[in-house]
Amino acid sequence: MAVVEVGWTIRAGYIGDARCTRQSSSICFHDGPMETSFPSILMAAEATGVDIIQSVWTICSLERGMNQNVEQLEYIMGNKLQCSKDDPLMLVLPEAWHERTDLVRELFRVVLEAGFTSALYCCRPSVAWTLASGRTSAVVLDVGHNQATTTAVLDGYALRNTVASSSLAGRSVTGRLIEMLDREQLESLESIKRYRVPSIRNWALDDMVNDIKRMACFVRVGHSNFL
User: Fold this and answer.
1) CATH of the domain at 42
2) Looking at residue 2, what is its pLDDT?
3) The pTM is what?
4) pLDDT at position 69 over 70
5) How far is residue 125 from each of residues 5, 144, 202, measured CA to CA in Å?
6) How far apart are CA 168 and CA 208, in angstroms?
7) CA distance 207 to 38
8) Could you tell me which residues are beta bridge partners of residue 27?
9) Is there a single domain that holds both residue 9 and residue 119?
10) How many CA atoms lie within 13 A of 71 on its CB side?
């Protein structure tokens, strides 16, 4: 069974994998070729001279239409995971999406009608991470790019009345890091200033600082004393 977790970053693999080895960006180049590499998407958009990059896996994008979401899922299943149409799919959706049953139901209908998977299952990330840790009950803190969410899981079930979300998440940390590193100096780097379209340059800048954040930053123990 294939497993695809959607969000700011799309992670894909198979049931039983020890860790995820396939990751791709959740943005796409409108009317361009289906690409999952972030640099490829930026270069394709830069070639047109117009910023037509869109975030795919957001509530707003689902409300506008689901064709791009389904196309990206089909591309991942067929090209990245080499799955056949007889293979089932486990879709891991962000915690807050499970409260929008109308959108989730419509997404499932569109995916199944597309015909690239034989069966479709849905899972909460809090439950998946709890079971993956060898436990059945836990309190899960998920800090994503746009949202941080806490959920209590009891005996393998997420307690819906315990779900709490905050917009203070990875994007806020990235923005603060850009300020600390000096935006003007970052924009003078050759890897950033080669993009002529300002909005595409911002995409590239955010991606570079996100890489710095992932590789060089950490949560300090006893941060209150440090401050």
Assistant:
1) 3.30.420.40
2) 92
3) 0.81
4) yes
5) 8, 11, 30
6) 20
7) 8
8) 55
9) yes
10) 16
